[in-house]
Amino acid sequence: MQDQIYTKNGDGGQTSLGGRHVPKTNSRIELIGALEETESSIGVARMFVPAGDGLVQDLAEVTGHLIRILKYLRGETARGESLGDGPVAFLEGKTDSYAAYYQGFDPDKAVMSCRTAALLMQARAVVRRAERIYIRADIAVGSKESALQRRYLNRLSDYLWAASMYLDTIRREGQPNGTTAGNAAINGRTSVCNTAGGNAGGTQSISRGSWNSANPMSLANIRVFMQALENEAAARGLSLVVAVCSREGRPVSVDVMDGAYIASYDIAVNKAWTAVSLQMPTKELAALCAPGGSLYGLQNTNQGRIVIFGGGVPLKDRDGNILGGLGVSGSTAENDTMMGDVGGELFLRMQEL
Question: Which pTM was predicted?
């Protein structure tokens, strides 16, 4: 069992592949890296698609296909095991299903106005790079499996392009008078395409009349803000404790969603306090507080209130001034971190009402 993440075996520019050491510049290693980038980009995009949209499951299916290709390239696949023709047919069918959205698509505008589409376009760019690497690399050239995988990557490029068209069309046609998808969510629509820098897709209705722009941290505003964030969490199947504190670190409001862990109450409150006390997201503290870090041991001060994992963020005004702190707890570290970031973005968006 490996008890240490770093082995130092790669310090000389070599890495392990299929039981042997090869240069990190090896074409197969480059290809694996490109596909890992693709998998990650698709994973991030999927996090911003509302839970009820079929694109969520489709992207999960694609991720499964990529994992199978990666296992093959890493030499982890049993002899005779194949990707099969099904994944290519799957992509062709899904791409054809987006035919109605082909008109009026401008990829340059889409990446500026639709975060989810931008992430899928990024994944497509990496897939195309992976295609080029695969063609140059002498990886079982001429074999049925390598030809199948190259064909799959070509179809995946087409599919990601088509899915981006779909997302951009929803943005353009779903909101009247050029309203952005982020504002559409605030006005009462749920959008599959969230704006770059906007709130995450699926954030529920916030009416303009319910927000007092003169005092963003008023209790009434914080109640509206927290309800919107909790609706987003519920749409993602998460049960969280959500806490907000003032810039002085005093609690403003704490909500416990149904099914949230008892322990998450104190953790959420302390995340909000940590974020405002140290004026930074709590996710940034893990490295700083690790042995050898510049803040090593900080987590043991302040009666143990300092939290050094994600889910706590400062709440800021549009000029970057810290108004308070947000803490969320109740899921994995990754989900807590994501929901904290979503909350920080949502708070900024609400100030634009």
Answer: 0.53
